[in-house]
Amino acid sequence: MPNIKSAKKRVLIAQKKTLQNKSINSNLKTVIKKANATLEEGSVENAQAAVRVAVKKIDQAAARGIMHKNAAAHKKSALALKLNALAK
């Protein structure tokens, strides 16, 4: 356990940020699963709406540094490929 006041504060902040990041990651996984489920159903309109929400959440996570920008691009690309295949 740290003895210096600033080190104690950093430990508390790190714990707080870890909880926030876990919450955002959990929400992100849920949104992506919902988008994939909607894509498998076959409804183009619902799939477009779900993918739009998922892409927005992915972009927000990448902008905050919770997810690497290349990982975000990979997930967005995969969703777009599935959506384009469904639209044809």
From TrEMBL:
SUPFAM superfamilies: Ribosomal protein S20. GO terms for biological process: translation. Pfam families: Ribosomal_S20p. GO terms for molecular function: small ribosomal subunit rRNA binding; structural constituent of ribosome. GO terms for cellular component: cytosol; small ribosomal subunit. Keywords: Ribonucleoprotein, Ribosomal protein, RNA-binding, rRNA-binding. InterPro entries: Ribosomal_bS20 (IPR002583), Ribosomal_bS20_sf (IPR036510). The keyword Ribonucleoprotein applies. The keyword Endoplasmic reticulum does not apply. NCBIfam families: S20. Belongs to the bacterial ribosomal protein bS20 family. Binds directly to 16S ribosomal RNA. This is Small ribosomal subunit protein bS20. The gene is rpsT.
